[in-house]
Amino acid sequence: MNKDIIISALGAFHKVDLEDIRHFFGADVPSHVRKNEFVQRLGAFIVERPQEWLGNMLERDLRLLLTLVEAGPEVPVVQEYPDYPTVLETVGLLRVDVSEKDFKEIWIPKEVYDIVAPHIREAISRGETDGTFEMERAAFGYLNLYGVLTVDEFYEKMLEYNDWAGRWSVEAFTSRLVESPVFKLCRIDLGGEPHMSAPGIYEPAKILSGRKDFPDLGGLRAFTPEQAIEAGSGAPEFVFGLGSPEGKKLVEMLLNLGYSGNDLVLEEHDIWMNSQMVWGDDATEEIFGCVSDREDDIETFEDYNDCMEIVAAYANSLPKWLLGGHSSNEANCLKVILQSEDDPIMDIIRKNPYMSLYVPPVPGDEPCPCGSGLSYRLCHGRNVN
């Protein structure tokens, strides 16, 4: 009976997709057989060898499984929509109701519950103690900090982490990395070259193309393994820099506005993600949504403007995918230092007023201080209306 629901879920996929599922689950199923036999063998592997494939799951999938197991079979759990779904949702081993706009309900079928419940806690404990989860967080972290890396750049960054962690030989570490679920999930081909892209990025080619406009930023910014682990923890609600002066002010402000618990985490994450999309008006408005959504609770315009400035200061301090991990503040430093009118970075900054999210307010019809050439009311002034 357990096998029937697995077979039904797998049977809905094309053969090429089943190959990806086999690879992700680490199933030793030959690929040269017909689809029906392939589905039967892959289904048997999932039913009979859960201890093996659970070890190939992302930490996020395992922790979601534990939550659903603790809730019980067929019991829906309400969740916000994340930036990207879990592998187990995508494969169809979990059931999801997305009829509501602002949240979804997710639950584990009884048949799948019976397969994973006896093994899920052991799988999580193993990932916590053998370094697998930490390696996964570092991998996600480097991708979250840079957005897109070539595979060679990704290896280089992760080898820096391995030197710091000191758990494995280079050979053993490289083997673990190639077989890690992060590598399987995030590897893509761009222009015929293998790359790694952070989860939740839908246009990685746009990021790589945009970086060409910033040749003088000096390439990728350096980050420590500790910073990578910070940026790669808490999937899928990644966040970075909350321990910085700007981050501490942001957290204090959000708490004062009444955010707490998961709502606080989601707001922090949303600012992080939307600050990466500085070329779009919608994203810019979303960055300040945590303040505008609570405007009725803010007594004066001065207090409101202070809150907006705190959000902008934090967003400007964050590493940007478009800038190879450099922040908007660092781009603005170049604006001060490089005075040449024909400097390419100066030109890009002038054409992209949202590269710096906050500027001092001026009368509406005066030129915006960001240097865009627009009036303040048509540029940055729109965000503090």
Short description:
The protein is mostly helical. 54% of the residues lie in helices and 6% in strands. The chain has a three-stranded antiparallel beta sheet, with helices on one face. Strands 4-6-5 form a three-stranded antiparallel beta sheet.
State the main characteristics.
385 residues, mainly alpha, three-stranded antiparallel beta sheet
User: Quick one: biggest sheet?
Assistant: 3 strands, antiparallel
| Amount of beta strand | 5-15%
Number of strands: 6
**Contiguous uncertain segments of 5+ residues:** 334-346, 348-358
Instruction: Give the SSE string.
Output: HHHHHEHEEHHHEHHHEEHHHHHHHHH
User: What class would the helix/strand composition place it in?
Assistant: mainly alpha
Mean pLDDT: 87
Rounded Rg:
23 Å
Shape: globular
Helix count equals 21
Strand arrangement within the widest β-sheet reads 1-3-2
Taking the alpha carbons of the first and last residues, their distance comes to: 60 Å
**Helix proportion of residues, in percent?**
40-55%
| Tally of individual domains | 3
